[in-house]
Design goal:
It is elongated and about 75 Å long. Strands 1, 2, 9, 12, 13, 16, 17, 18, 19 and 20 form a ten-stranded mixed beta sheet that branches. An eight-stranded mixed beta sheet has the order 4-3-11-6-7-8-10-5. 33% of the residues lie in helices and 22% in strands. It has two domains: 283 residues, 3-Layer(aba) Sandwich (Aminopeptidase); 155 residues, Glucose Oxidase, domain 1, CATH 3.50.30. It contains twelve helices and 20 strands. By secondary structure, the protein is an alpha/beta fold. Helix 2 crosses helix 8 and helix 5 crosses helix 6. InterPro entries: M28_fam (IPR045175), Peptidase_M28 (IPR007484). It comes from Niastella soli. This is M28 family peptidase. Pfam families: Peptidase_M28 (PF04389). Keywords: Signal.
């Protein structure tokens, strides 16, 4: 009798322990841990974690070591936490020369060449007002010049100033090239001039590619130079009879970039062969000496150190209490270059691709109003799994209860936010995917995106929401189903 009483007591203690353990993982995601890790990863020590640099590799090594200390197993190549890939860079050479009339322009100080090219241009300049109505015979074989104009494109007041110029160039470059121009010369208006210092710093980096990129034709044009001069040159460019004489050269380099990959094995013998993938990127924009800005290090605290440390916290929770399915954690490299790390992993996964039941991606989860957030992949045509979305919405209703902004998920939204983070390559592979975010803010891609500006309490709630969603998927009887006929608009 004493034996059975003792056995009952042990069983009761175990039952209580299990019940407590079931609550433990969400509590294991601690605000203090997130704050500590965030201030470390977004510190000047990592110099902004620019893709293809030693700083990105240094940050990746730190993440891998933290994953190891959290009890996560390596899941990269050859039994390591790492999956390396080659990043190919092409940029305008400093040997390039640009002259309008008798005036020579200094590269990156007076003039930006928008994308790499090889070209020799010696042709008259024709200034135009409206690219849509100009006749082909007016500009064919000539250099067409125009001031930045929002005519026919998204109202620039609705977007971030430094993105405005990109929208304008994208809107007009191909249309003008189709009319046979030799080169395109943009002149700043007031809004584009605000973006000049930033674009000069970004354009001198050049363009980047990897094998199998989602964006194989990132260049707008092929060897038709797109040149941008500052507003003060408007009078010179408009003067009749001016010519552009330019020699444009490019040069190329290859650098290593890396994904950090770790896992927690599931407890169910069969379901453990399936994976819930938690996704984020660890890179940012590095060191940029931007005109008029004192701080040169782009620490990227919100973008995307917040999610990088969130994945560490979620990993600790899964290590404490694994789900039935395995949890896979991928800190993608080179996202800022063009989603390259996620593109590479989606094409070369270290686990069978068919074993990936869902991707829970995060990008920027620590800013804006404390009670608001966004979940993308909810509105068609971006909705690719109602099952997955239902779980995410249920977990939000249970816990953080964020008011969800759905505008940024619409196909009509001018920023195309759905296509600008690491869930996209997986969705293209027909893997159920959602995207957690608290959306852009005035410090986005500026040196002001520092750890001290992050709402740590909100970051904690967002992390717990991502974790709860993934834990529910890991323990569901069935994997989330893909929407029949799912097809993105681009």
């Amino acid at each position: 009798m004493r034996y059975f009483a003792a056995l009952f007591a042990v069983s009761l203690i175990c039952a209580i322990s299990v019940a407590q353990t079931k609550k433990a993982p969400i509590e294991a995601i601690k605000q203090a841990d997130l704050k500590r890790d965030l201030f470390r990863l977004a510190d000047d020590y990592f110099r902004g974690r620019e893709a293809g640099t030693l700083d990105e590799l240094k940050a990746s090594t730190w993440l891998a070591e933290e994953a190891r200390k959290a009890g996560l197993e390596p899941a990269g190549d050859d039994g390591t936490y790492f999956q390396f890939f080659s990043l190919n860079r092409e940029r305008i050479s400093d040997r390039s020369t640009i002259k309008i009339g008798e005036r020579s322009f200094n590269l990156w100080k007076d003039v930006v060449v928008y994308e790499p090219a090889f070209a020799t241009v010696a042709a008259p300049i024709v200034f135009i007002e409206n690219p849509d109505t100009v006749a082909e015979e007016t500009v064919k074989g000539k250099v067409v010049a125009l001031q930045f104009t929002p005519q026919g494109i998204t109202d620039p007041r609705k977007t971030i100033a430094w993105r405005y110029s990109g929208f304008v160039v994208s809107a007009w470059a191909r249309k003008l090239a189709a009319k046979g121009v030799k080169a395109i010369l943009f002149v700043s208006d007031e809004l584009a001039e605000q973006a000049w210092p930033r674009y000069a710093q970004y354009s001198n980096r050049g363009s980047y590619q990897i094998e199998g990129s989602l964006f194989p034709n990132r260049r707008l044009l092929k060897d038709i130079p797109i040149i941008w001069v500052r507003k003060e040159a408007l009078g010179l460019v408009r003067t009749p009879g001016q010519r552009l004489d330019a020699q444009i050269y490019s040069e190329s380099f290859t650098y290593p970039s890396v994904n950090v990959v770790a896992k927690v094995k599931g407890t169910d013998p069969a379901l453990a062969k399936e994976y819930v993938l938690f996704s984020g990127h660890q890179d940012h924009d590095g060191v940029r000496n931007i005109e008029g800005v004192k701080d040169s290090i782009m620490n990227g605290a919100d973008d995307n150190a917040t999610v990088s440390v969130a994945l560490l916290a979620i990993g600790r929770a899964f290590h404490q209490q694994p789900g039935k399915r395995s949890a896979l954690f991928v800190w993608h490299g080179s996202e800022e270059r063009g989603l390259f790390g996620s593109t590479w992993y989606a094409e070369h996964p270290t686990v069978p691709r068919e074993s990936l039941v869902a991707v829970l991606n995060g990008d920027m989860i620590g800013m804006n109003a404390p009670d608001s957030a966004a979940l993308l992949g909810v509105i068609p045509p971006h909705l690719n799994s109602s099952d997955l979305v239902k779980i995410a919405l249920q977990e939000n209703a249970k816990g953080p209860k964020f008011k969800l902004d759905t505008a940024w998920d619409k196909a009509s939204h001018h920023e195309g936010w759905y296509f600008r983070s690491d869930h996209f390559p997986y969705a293209k592979k027909n893997i159920p995917a959602v995207f957690f975010s608290t959306l852009p803010h005035p410090l986005y891609h500026t040196p002001g995106d520092e750890a001290a500006t992050i709402n740590i309490e909100k970051l904690t709630r967002m992390t717990r929401w991502m974790y709860a969603t993934g834990f529910a998927v890991a323990n569901a009887a069935n994997r989330p189903r893909l929407e029949p006929g799912f097809k993105l608009e681009r």
